[in-house]
TrEMBL record:
It comes from Paenibacillus mucilaginosus 3016. Pfam families: EamA (PF00892). InterPro entries: AA-Vitamin_Transporters, EamA_dom, EmrE-like. The chain crosses the membrane at residues 43-64, 76-96, 108-127, 133-150. The keyword DNA repair does not apply. It is a multi-pass membrane protein. GO terms for cellular component: plasma membrane. Keywords: Cell membrane, Membrane, Transmembrane, Transmembrane helix. This is EamA domain-containing protein.
Length: 167
């Protein structure tokens, strides 16, 4: 008899592969963002990011639009959509691009690792969602990763002391 439900091993395999690609994608995004910040203003960089995202999502959106009833969307949902477009996309990317223009790409990547931590904390504070043990484990991993990245070994041979790196 076949078991019902998701295959845990398969799900973990997919999660591992997706995580690797997400990390690579984030690294590419931060690196190219840093390269662009030398030639573009943060606003122009945010506009370019949004335009590229629009172009990438447009084909899939057109397919879904054929099956979507736009009249069913309430004014509250339209408001959330505008908030997401302006607040999350424009304002957050603008701030990220401003930061990347002023700090090294590696440092801005470290700070972007705090996004899931802030999502957990804000979900708890604003939406009263519970924080589970696995959230705390994830937060500890993120903080440990940031701590390990923010420290570097001295280049003197035989000396194993850690010196902090300014972020």
């Amino acid at each position: 008899m076949k078991k019902k439900g998701p295959d845990l091993i398969g799900a973990l395999f997919l999660l591992k592969r997706a995580a690797k690609h997400l990390v690579i994608g984030e690294a590419v995004f931060m690196t190219f963002g840093k390269l662009l910040s030398a030639n573009l203003s943060p606003l122009a960089s945010a506009a370019l990011t949004s335009t590229i995202g629009f172009g990438l999502f447009l084909p899939v959106s057109l397919v879904q639009a054929a099956q979507f009833e736009i009249a069913a969307v309430t004014p509250a949902i339209w408001g959330l959509l505008v908030y997401t477009g302006v607040g999350v996309t424009v304002f957050a990317v603008l701030l990220l691009n401003q930061a990347m223009a002023q700090i090294p790409a590696g440092s801005s990547a470290v700070f972007s690792a705090l996004m899931p931590v802030s999502a957990v904390v804000l979900s708890y504070a604003a939406l009263h969602e519970p924080i589970h043990w696995y959230h705390l484990v994830g937060i500890l991993f993120v903080l440990a990763g940031i701590l390990s990245i923010s420290r570097k070994k001295t280049s003197v041979a035989g000396e194993g002391q850690q010196k902090p790196v300014s972020l």
